[in-house]
Amino acid sequence: MTIRCYAFRPGEGLSQPSLDALPGLLADPDVHLWIDLEGADSEIQALLGGPLGLHPVVVEDILLESQPKLEDYGDFLYVIVHGIDGSRQDPLDLGTLEIDLVLGSRWLVTHHDGRTRSIPAVRAQLERDPALLERGPAFVLHAVLDHLTDHYAPVMEKFDQLLERLEYDILKEPRPELLEQILALKHSLQTLRRIGVHQKELLGRLALRGCKLVPEGALPFFRDILDHFTRVSDLTEVYREMTASALQAYLSMQNQKLNEVMKFLTMISTVMLPLSFIAGIYGMNFEHMPELRWKLGYPAVLLVMAVVATGLYIFFRRRRFL
User: Fold this and answer.
1) What is the mean pLDDT of residues 145-154?
2) Model-level pTM?
C-alpha cells in the first residue's frame, strides 16, 4: 500500500504533504490536491470514506474491478478507465489494468494496483512542471488519460505486425499452431473491444457534453484524447475483421489441403479399380479359362494392367484432374 499526496498552493508551489495535513488542505480553498493511492487495504478505504467523504458505493467500486464508466455525483466525478498492462503487451496474451479516478473541484484521487505506467509518467511530468496541478485537478486527470491512451499505440502496431505475419504464414503453410495464434488474437481483440466501447463513450461525455467540474479551457484537450482513442477503437474493429478473415483463410487452406489429399487418393483408387477388376477375373478358380495355360498369360496381363494405368494417367492429365 502506497499513498502519495501532491499539493499546490499559490505562492508556495508544489509540495508533498503528509496524510496528517490532508484535512486542512482539503478545507483550504486555495489548494489544489492530487492524492495517488496504490493497493487496497483498510487505511485506503478509511481515507476514501473519511476525509474525502466519498459515497460508500464509490468506495466499494474503487476497491473492486469494474468496466469503464463515468458517474457524476454532483460534488465529484467518478471515472473508471482501463489501460494496457506494461508487463503483458503481447497481442496473444494482452493484459489490461484498471485506474479509478475521482475528480472534485479542487482535488483528484487516483487509485491503481501499481502496474500502470501512466501514473508514474504523470508524477514525473508534475515534478518537472508544477503548473500542471496549478491549472486545476482536471488537467491532471487529462494528463493521466492522455498517457494511458498513448500506451495503446505500440500495442496496436504489434497487432498489425502479427496479423501481417499470420496472413503470410497461412498462405505459405497453414500449420496447426497458427490456429491457436488466431484464436488467442481473437480473444485479445474481443477484450480490447469490450473495454473500448465503454471507454470511448465516457471520453465522449468528458470531451463533448462537458461537466461542471471540467473547465471550458480543458475541453479541447479531452477532445484530443477522444480523437486518439477513437482511432484505437476503429483499429480494433479493423483488426477483428482481419482476424476473422485470417481464420476463414486458414480454414479454406486446410480444406484445400484436405481436398488435394482426397483428390490424390481418389485418383489412386480410380487407377486401381480396373486393375483390381482384371486381377479378379484371373483370380477366379474356373477350370476352363484359356489364358490360364498360356505361357505368356502372366506378362500379358501385367502389360494390359500397365497400359490401362498409363492410359488413365494420360486421360487425367489431359482433363487437368492432376
Assistant:
1) 93
2) 0.80
